[in-house]
Amino acid sequence: MHLSMRRRAHLSILFAVALGTAPLCAQVVVQNPSLPQEENLVYTESVGGDAWTVTQSLSLKTAKGDSWYEFRSSSPDSDVVMRLDPSTLFPRSSEVTSHSADSLIKRTTEILKMTPHPKANELIIGDFNSLPITLRGLPWGTFTSANLVFLGAGGRGYQFSPKLTVAGRESVSAGGKTYDCWKVQLGIGGFLGSLMGKSSYWFSADAPHFLVKSESPSGGPGSPLQRWELLSYNAR
């Protein structure tokens, strides 16, 4: 699942503020939760009174002795293509094409080298678009919380950091079905965190822990919630 332009703008503000003032704090290990060879998911995304459809696919690819997961997501405002490590689900490369009334912008990213040194209770993240996929590989049942550190932060010390916390298990209805889910919340503490609000994600409690639902502020204080709800899931 990718993040829409609205949510990316909100999270960019949240993380820019957090990383500008916050210390990074055992390392959380993410592993492939037995993802199928191919998945197709359809979501409805809504903000206020507007709603639209987001289609996604995840498929295992093999070529020249290498393997990876190819993730694709398409919505009215953006198209995303990513290559993910098949074991850690960490992004190797991404291509994001953003559509708007006055522009068509393509941004490409390729990770050529990475030597992160996460501290205790830290989770290294590639980017906003890969975040919901990475979270599928959390050690559910034992994981409680982690400070998020984005690759490229350079190991600097910070006073506050975005924190991911398990809020428990809940029964969630989406697309006419009911799912047993793990609920996790993402936000920063203190007064700033109360202003920015938290993002909530519900992942299926059973593997492969696909995203069922999410809610997050679409902008600054007072902005309407941005919601995602799973309409259909198919795998083989």
Note the topology.
Blueprint (H helix, E strand, L loop, with lengths): L4 H17 L16 E10 L2 E14 L2 E10 L2 E7 L6 E10 L2 E8 L11 E4 L5 H4 L10 E6 L12 E12 L2 E11 L2 H7 L2 E6 L6 E7 L7 E11 L1
Parallel strand pairs: 7-8
Antiparallel strand pairs: 1-2, 1-13, 2-3, 3-4, 4-5, 5-6, 8-9, 9-10, 10-11, 11-12, 12-13
Describe this structure in words.
With 236 residues, this protein is mainly beta. It has one domain: outer membrane lipoprotein receptor (LolB), chain A. Helices cover 12% and strands 49% of the residues. It contains three helices and 13 strands. A 13-stranded mixed sheet has the order 6-5-4-3-2-1-13-12-11-10-9-8-7. A hairpin with a 2-residue loop joins strand 9 and strand 10. It is globular. About 8% of the residues have low confidence.
CATH class: Mainly Beta
What is the helix fraction of residues, given as a range?
Answer: 10-25%
Q: Terminal Cα separation, in Å?
A: 18 Å
The CATH topology comes to outer membrane lipoprotein receptor (LolB), chain A
Structural class label: mainly beta
State which percent range the strand residues make up: over 45%
Task: Provide the gyration radius in Å.
Answer: 17 Å
Count of discrete domains: 1
Mean pLDDT: 85
Strand order of the largest sheet: 6-5-4-3-2-1-13-12-11-10-9-8-7
- Catalogue the unreliable spans: 7-25
How many β-strands, per DSSP? 13
Number of helices: 3
CATH architecture: Clam
- Major sheet characteristics: 13 strands, mixed
Silhouette: globular
* Topology pattern, helix = H, strand = E: HEEEEEEEHEEEHEEE
